[in-house]
Design brief:
Layout (H helix, E strand, L loop, with lengths): L16 E4 L1 E2 L18 E2 L2 H15 L5 E5 L8 H14 L5 E6 L1 H6 L2 H9 L2 E9 L3 H7 L5 H13 L3 E8 L7 H15 L3 E6 L7 H8 L7 H14 L5 E5 L8 E5 L3 H13 L12
Parallel strand pairs: 1-4, 4-5, 5-6, 6-7, 7-8, 8-9
Antiparallel strand pairs: 2-3, 9-10
Helix pairs in contact: 1-2, 6-7, 7-9, 9-10
């Protein structure tokens, strides 16, 4: 396989074949993200991808069951071309069970319901959407390029097309100033989307990003570990999604949590309250990495 630049994937795609359908991210303007900051976005040609798929088949055989399309937003690819890629994968790997990819809200809004359903029929069945926040002000500060209503429309489009949607919220995205609003409104947006998976990670401010500049200037003040746990508690308490798998076990998180909503919600909240009742090191957390 041939790869250009750094390759990123969700933890759940650890055993998937990674096919780099695009280089970089089509949006690439989020203030906190350094993943593709110095990469010019482009869609790789069908010829290149066919060669990579042939290489993968020669190396791994026909038994590949999962494929992840990188980089940051392959869903932006024109639907007919994306269908060609999926058909090539299905021809090379007859046991293929699913294809996954990152999706921006913008790319989801560009696809019709019919297009998404057609892609799902070709095994593109799980999308990873960085919601980050449900607060209009936080989304604006993060430069996500959409408002909460558009985020809901994007997420619902995937869900209604029968795709599994994995969503992510960033704890601390609003800083101390918008901590309560961020928790409350993020839950409200996910309640409307009703995704299959909900995960959280804590904001890790990376040098060289606009958010780092804001932190140095004092306009963004990240919450400390205790405040981050309080934000997670308030977010979880406000969630009403009845059948979602919840994960808050990213390496950036102070307290690893996992469960199924709503079955495990109270137990998760109890664990958070127990943690908040005890001592929490001030120097532990994203800002300590």
């Amino acid at each position: 396989m041939r790869y250009e630049g750094n390759i990123f994937r969700p933890p759940s795609e650890a055993n998937s074949l990674i096919l780099q359908a695009t280089v970089g991210c089509s949006h690439n303007r989020c203030t906190f993200c350094a993943m593709y900051r110095n990469t010019s976005f482009r869609v790789r040609s069908i010829e290149e991808l066919k060669e990579d798929i042939a290489m993968a088949r020669a190396c791994f055989g026909t038994g590949v069951r999962r494929v992840f399309l990188a980089d940051g937003d392959p869903l932006i690819i024109q639907t007919q071309r994306l269908k060609q890629i999926l058909l090539c994968l299905l021809q090379a790997f007859p046991k293929l069970q699913r294809v996954g990819t990152y999706a921006t809200p913008q790319s989801l809004l560009l696809k019709s319901q019919e297009e998404l359903e057609a892609l799902r029929s070709l095994k593109l069945s799980i999308l990873y959407l960085g919601v980050e926040s449900g607060s209009a002000e936080v989304l604006k500060r993060l430069n996500k390029g959409v408002n909460p209503e558009e985020m809901v429309q994007a997420g619902r489009r995937a869900v209604e097309a029968g795709m599994k949607l994995s969503t992510m919220i960033i704890l601390g995205a609003g800083g101390i100033e918008l901590k309560d609003e961020h928790a409350r409104e993020s839950a409200a947006v996910l309640n409307r989307i009703a995704p299959r998976f909900i995960s959280t990670l804590s904001m890790m401010v990376v040098e060289g990003t606009p958010l780092h500049d804001e932190m140095v200037a004092g306009s963004y003040v990240p919450p400390d570990p205790r405040q981050t746990l309080e934000e997670l508690r308030d977010f979880l308490a406000a969630l009403e999604v009845t059948s979602a798998i919840f994960r808050s076990n990213h390496v950036s998180n102070f307290l690893p949590l996992a469960g199924t909503l709503m079955k495990d919600k109270q137990a998760l909240l109890n664990t958070l309250e127990e943690a908040l009742a005890g001592p929490i090191p001030d120097d532990f957390g994203p800002q300590g990495y």
